[in-house]
Design brief:
- It is a single chain.
- By secondary structure, this protein is of the alpha+beta class.
- It has a single domain (3-263), classed as Roll (2,3-Dihydroxybiphenyl 1,2-Dioxygenase, domain 1).
- It contains 8 helices and 9 strands.
- It has helices at residues 3-17, 19-30, 52-60, 104-114, 139-148, 150-158, 178-187, 253-259; strands at 37-45, 64-72, 77-84, 91-97, 164-168, 207-211, 216-220, 226-230, 233-239.
- The strands form 2 sheets. A 7-stranded mixed beta sheet has the order 2-3-4-1-5-9-6, with helices on both faces. The protein has a two-stranded antiparallel sheet with strand order 7-8.
- Strand 2 and strand 3 (77-84) form a beta hairpin.
- The longest helix is centred in the N-terminal third of the chain and has 15 residues, at 3-17.
- The protein binds nickel (II) ion.
Length: 265
């Protein structure tokens, strides 16, 4: 699978549970824009078989290099970002929940799920858009996890897939600010995540970001019950150059921290 095919598979899986993103992308394309992805982000647990360390070789194998490491104390997350060596293609952002920082009962729920992962078939690229690698949890389990960590509940219910794609505002011709893009998105009837302000970051931090509120779609839980839960959101990013004219290539932890909340119910 070449890189284009990989990212297309991710996108196709993503818009199935985040149909608004497809609508937003199509809207910008209808304005004559070529939509370029700034980054694609994933969520996982820090358990051996599915940790960042286990997934990273697949991303490096696509011709990517590590570009940054991040820690989110309050949400008990850790993350790494990767950039394509050749300079084309979206950046990749992998985050993982530090399960041992929660109480043991919480960890047991996560470990029960992770024990079902089929590591025999390998953690190939298809794993990244494979969805839930364990049987559907009950809605009660999902709700219990969500009380402690929305992130954990999201991964338990939806598994491995793109958590969000991100439109690069640098690559748009007719839009040069976050607010102009957000106004366009709101005119389509979609809500913007205003946790920590509509726009996270500033030219001083070299990265400005914003996002929609996640779509809500029916998801199947144990016993065949369906419940409407938050799925995926669409992000927008504008990168700035430093004093030497080099475009910022990493991420800003404080901003990403608030962007994570786009999937809160
Ligand atoms: Ni992001």
């Amino acid at each position: 699978m070449d890189n284009d095919a990989f990212f297309r598979k991710l996108w196709d899986d993503y818009v199935e549970i985040a149909p608004r993103a497809a609508g937003i992308r199509a809207h910008f394309e209808s304005l004559g824009e070529t939509v370029v992805d700034d980054h694609v982000a994933f969520r996982t647990f820090d358990r051996d078989s599915i940790s960042i360390a286990a997934l990273e070789p697949q991303i490096l194998g696509l011709g990517y290099v590590l570009s940054g490491e991040y820690r989110f104390e309050q949400k008990r997350l850790r993350a790494r970002s990767y950039s394509p060596k050749a300079g084309n293609g979206p950046r990749v952002f992998l985050s993982e929940l530090c399960v041992d920082e929660f109480d043991p009962a919480f960890g047991e729920v996560i470990d029960t799920l992770v024990s079902e992962v089929d590591t025999q078939s390998g953690m190939g690229l298809a794993y990244f858009y494979g969805g839930r690698p364990w049987a559907a949890p009950s809605f009660a389990t999902y709700s219990r996890l969500a009380e402690v960590s929305e992130y954990a509940a999201w991964v338990a219910a939806l598994g491995m897939r793109a958590n969000h794609f991100t439109i690069s505002i640098n690559a748009l011709n007719g839009f040069h600010t976050l607010e102009s893009v957000l106004a366009e998105v709101e005119a389509l009837g979609f809500s913007v995540n205003d946790s920590g302000g509509r726009v996270k970051g500033s030219p001083a931090t070299r990265l400005e970001q914003a996002s929609t509120i996640a779509d809500r779609v029916p998801v199947e839980f144990a016993g065949g019950d369906h419940y409407v839960i938050p799925t995926c959101y669409y992000e927008f990013a504008l990168r700035h150059e430093d004093g030497d004219g080099v475009l910022f290539d990493g991420f800003v932890a404080d901003s990403a921290d608030r962007i994570f909340e786009s999937t809160h119910s």
